[in-house]
Amino acid sequence: MQKAREQLQLFSVESENKPRQSKINRLEEQDRAFHDWYRFVLSFPPHLVRQHLDEFGVDEQKLLLDPFCGTGTTLVEAKKNHISSVGLEANPFAQFASAVKVNWEIDPDLLLEQAQRIAETVQRKLQRRASATDGQSALRTLPSEAAKLLIRNSISPLPLHKALILRDEIQKYAAAPFCAHARLALANALVNSISNLRFGPEVGIGSIKHDVPVVRIWLDQVDKMVGDLRRVQAENYPAAKIHLADARELSMYLDPRSIDAVITSPPYPNEKDYTRTTRLESVILGFINNRAELRTLKKRLVRSNTRAVFKADDDDEWVRNYPEVERIAQEIEERRIALGKTSGFEKLYHRVTRLYFGGMARHLAELRPFLRPGAHLAYVVGDQASYFQVLIRTGELLGDIAESLGYELARIDLFRERFSTATRQYLREETVVLRWNGNKRTSLSFGQTHLDFCPP
Ligand SMILES: C[S@@+](CC[C@H](N)C(=O)[O-])C[C@H]1O[C@@H](n2cnc3c(N)ncnc32)[C@H](O)[C@@H]1O
After folding, report:
1. Which atom of ligand 1 lies at the shortest distance from residue 69's CA?
2. Is the pLDDT of residue 271 over 80?
3. I want to staple 62 with a disulfide (CB 3.0 to 4.6 A). Which of 134, 229, 260, 454 is the partner?
4. For ligand 1, is residue 42 a contact (CB within 6 Å)?
């Protein structure tokens, strides 16, 4: 933890000097093990987690929670430091990725042996098909409902054909403990090498790859996992549990007063469709098969973009009496009218802003009975100006809302600043540091916690 302490100092010095560089979010070389089994563009860096584990004094006796765990940076880092953890994640593919990344109990030699066998079988099948057919017509494709969910040109026909054959061969071992690792290796290979995707930070299409050595790329990925697993075989590490869950309804997954610390990064109100980030691998591996399943997933998410707003949504109730959220929402709507913007999505900008902060308020309210008195919490969030350039100070607002709910706001750290091309200004990404000291009014009755929230 000494290194984390040094990093903490580095951060405070950099804070004064405005840490604008995007490198601060990169995965450092020495952190690659397990984290790079699969990591999406929304991830925060392991050194940020270490910094807070150290600062909060989280040790082997404590239980750590990440209620928006994404692809598991907090949970992997906790495990590496022998700390037990729980993760909640609403996106089934991200939940799967997190669960595999903290499963170090499988036999690496068996994984490698079986993967090599699968690779040989797939190569044989590909060669047989190549010599038996001459045209593109024989290529494997996705069912049309699933194919419609993909971002256009995200994968070329031949790499898709090869990936589907590999996927089905892996699936034959569905009951074997190594199967999940083999699937995650395919997901990582798909996103980073086999597909045409480019992340920067939005998902887009880069150079089109007409053919790719799919099996070799996948096997290299498995090999990396095997190396990481071999290095931890001799030691015992604590368990991490990852649930497919909505962080606004977490009572089924946690024990009362069990959580000592929270380190997390929820969505930001930035009009980003978080489901697009994992779309290709979610569809190819069968986590989302049609529009109805995509809709079910979107309903579980905190509302942060207008493509995931539903008629029955009522999280805004949680911030109805909160003046700053109301002021921002009104400013957004007034600016829309002044600019003469009339699209359906633009008309929802003010609503999604209320729903976002309402959802976060609901999460923070629900969380209270599960925190041990004295629990420390760190929420990494970014300021936004996606809605007609109206500035949303996300960290500041979240801190205020948390205080209204009985949390103590310890401080707000600057993590980094990011340049917004829309507004041509730097936007702050911050860590809201909270403390829960216990609250007599907090009970497991959720009607009661709801009433408690309404700010004075
Ligand atoms: C900024 S990302 C977290 C990234 C994570 N810290 C990592 O390093 O991979 C936010 C995550 O919150 C998830 N999410 C959004 N709404 C949620 C909800 N209501 N419950 C649980 N997870 C949710 C999204 O699917 C996304 O994976």
Report:
1. 5
2. yes
3. 260
4. yes
